[in-house]
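Morning F.,

Quick status update on the modeling queue. The single chain you submitted on Monday has been processed. Sequence for confirmation:
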Amino acid sequence: MRVEVIRAWPHRVESVVLDLPEGSTVADALSASGLDGLTPAQPTAIHGLMAEGGALLREGDRVEVLRPLLLDPKEARRRRARR
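Structure tokens below.
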């Protein structure tokens, strides 16, 4: 089955299309991606929905590697409101 692993930064995107066997998990896709610094504990999503490393993948899934938040969303709203 074909799946895509994506890691994005503000001005750069890395994308790898993989051909994995049926029954593969998010952790399998991260390991097979070859992207530096990824671990099975990395926060991920499948098509925008949070997913654990043991989540099973299906044909055409897009595994998105999530970045940590730079600022708590509530604090960001407070700062915008102060301006």
